[in-house]
Amino acid sequence: MSVADNAQRYSRLRDEQSSLFELYARRNGLTGKSLLVLLWLYHSPQGLSQEFIAKRTYSTKQVIRSIIKNLQAETYIILELSKKDRRKKIVRLTDYGRRYASSLADPLARYEQEAMAVLSQEQQEVLLEATAVFSHKLRQILEEREV
């Protein structure tokens, strides 16, 4: 197969994975982006700035503000002034929000582990290495070309 064929195949597989996460989010009453924000917060108990969340999820500040507003209305998160920069707010899960995020993140992690377990150790390492290299290069190309 040609590079173009493989790129297209990989793109379709990546789209399928993305759609699977969207489905999981939707089945749990969330958007995919809201789930992604919750997962970032769940794995960052110290809290994160809205700016960091936007950067890491490749989202606009407006999208993140909207998600934060909705999560705050559900009492899943709190906003605190940053100790380092009082102009910034740090987003943290409340205890209630941590339990809620755990009810989503922990099963999802088990499902991912179950799916990964069908691969041999060698296949897992190749998958991880190849995905890291591909993602790094694609990010570099998109940033250079300001796409």
Account of the 3D structure:
The protein has 147 residues and is mainly α. It contains six helices and three strands. A three-stranded antiparallel sheet has the order 1-3-2. A hairpin with a 7-residue loop joins strand 2 and strand 3. The model has no long low-confidence stretch (mean pLDDT 95). This is MarR family winged helix-turn-helix transcriptional regulator. Keywords: DNA-binding, Transcription, Transcription regulation. It comes from Streptococcus dentapri.
Ordered list of secondary-structure elements with their pairings:
Elements: H1 3-27, H2 32-42, E1 48-49, H3 50-56, H4 61-73, E2 77-81, E3 89-93, H5 95-116, H6 121-145
Antiparallel strand pairs: 1-3, 2-3
Pfam families: MarR_2
Keywords: DNA-binding, Transcription, Transcription regulation
Domain HTH marR-type: 1-143
